[in-house]
Amino acid sequence: MSNAATEAEPAVSAAFVEKRPLERYVAPAKPSLVGYSRARLAESLGGIGVPERQQRMRVQQIWHWLYVRGAQNFDEMTTLSKELRATLAQHFTLARPDIAAEQISVDGTRKWLLRLPGEAGDRPHEVECVYIPEADRGTLCISSQVGCTLTCTFCHTGTQRLVRNLTAEEIAGQVVLARDRLNDWTRADDEPLRNSDAQAAEGDAAKGERRRLVSNVVMMGMGEPLYNFDAVRDGLGVVADGEGLSLSKRRITLSTSGVVPNIARAGHEIGVMLAVSLHAVTDELRNELVPLNRKYPLVELLDACRNYPGLSNARRVTFEYVMLKGINDSLADARALVRLIKGIPAKINLIPFNPWPGSRYECSDWAQIEKFSEIVFDAGYASPVRTPRGRDILAACGQLKSASEKLSARERLALRAMAMTD
Ligand code: SAH
Ligand code: SF4
């Protein structure tokens, strides 16, 4: 009996790979304050001799400079004394993640290749961060890990090793960096920029005010965010802080491949919108496409979605479904999909597969995607295929991998999928 059990196990784990990080983050001797939470800032101020009774006020002031005004150097922080500014500059920097390359395409999509420090100091790592402007919003796609813990078979990142988790500062730092590059900070002579909810309520051209360029964030770049829970929670906490970067939690979406035990936690402790990479309607196929399914099968995953804290018709979960030719794209699959998620306030985001060198799948034919989406639409879910010509299809950026080539038209289309989440 016990023999059979031990024999059965390796067969499963051989096919299922949950990678361990190869490296840890090593903080530089003079760290950057960018991405710090209020608590961490207070602690750091304590460390350089700011008395406890002053810390709250100083944190408030620095917070404003960091996350409303985008200060890049301590001298700009004119509400602080010269002495404090000098002491801060002695111990800290305001460095952002390094940009190794920046690509701007004709439609305004921008891709930054970020260089993050490696454990050995001389071996930096790269992750990508992408900005996708649209008529009514600007979506920033950010990464949570260098590489990924998991091994989804259709995903380029899945083929990489998991180098390390990003820190909370590196996660929030991606938003800071995008605001820098887009000149999206509140200027001294500005009225406060309207926050993203006001923007949504008032519509586009409201009163000629300047709009936030980064209005939405999706955690759909490299990595599985729920395997880097604490840093993602803390980093997004900084991004959502209403007196700082100020992105409403309704405009932040976290995409997971289905780390079931952390889904409820994400709802309670992070409170952002949830997207789930479903991709298959049977355990048999999902085990192959998303090997994590062997650990957390469909019934458990769907249960976690159904019980996601705060779920309602106004706050739906997005199910992502990558269209793989001949694999998961039959019309029977489409019907099974709508049956499977019945009763869950949901949106469905069909993602045309974006091939990569060596990938074993093909993208479904366009006609098939349309038929599939019609079934989804008829079942009452907004059809993700938005233009009759069908060229404005939207895909995800899960295929991000650090290679610095020009943004292809296909990739641009692919990247636009993230804007589909709300
Ligand atoms: N790790 C998380 C978030 C990053 S991936 C997750 O898996 O949800 C963001 C989305 O892009 C996911 O739905 C992912 O399955 C999808 N994706 C990955 N590789 C893709 C590819 N080559 N083509 C299309 N979508 C892909
Ligand atoms: Fe990781 Fe998501 Fe890619 Fe799967 S799809 S390997 S979870 S990044």
What does this structure look like?
This protein has 422 residues and is α/β, with parallel strands linked by helices. The protein has 13 helices and eleven strands. Strand 10, helix 11 and strand 11 (346-352) form a beta-alpha-beta unit. The longest helix has 16 residues, at 52-67. It starts with a helix and ends in a 7-residue tail after the last helix. Residues 1-12, 199-208 and 385-406 have low confidence and may be disordered. Bound molecules: S-adenosyl-L-homocysteine and iron/sulfur cluster. S-adenosyl-L-homocysteine binds next to strand 8 and strand 10.
Shape: elongated
Give the end-to-end Cα distance, rounded to a whole number of Å.
50 Å
Number of strands: 11
The strand line-up of the biggest sheet is 1-2-3-4-7-8-9-10-11
The oligomerization state is single chain
The biggest beta sheet reads:
9 strands, mixed
- Give the amount of beta strand, in percent: 5-15%
Count of individual helical segments? 13
Q: Which structural category fits the helices and strands?
A: alpha/beta
Order of helices and strands: HHHHEEEEEEHHEHEHEHHEHEHH
Helix content: 25-40%
**Unreliable stretches, pLDDT < 50, 5 or more residues?**
1-12, 199-208, 385-406
Give the C-alpha Rg. Answer: 22 Å
List the ligand species.
Answer: S-adenosyl-L-homocysteine, iron/sulfur cluster
Mean pLDDT: 86
Throw out a few tags for this protein.
422 residues; alpha/beta; 11 strands; elongated; disordered N terminus; binds S-adenosyl-L-homocysteine; binds iron/sulfur cluster
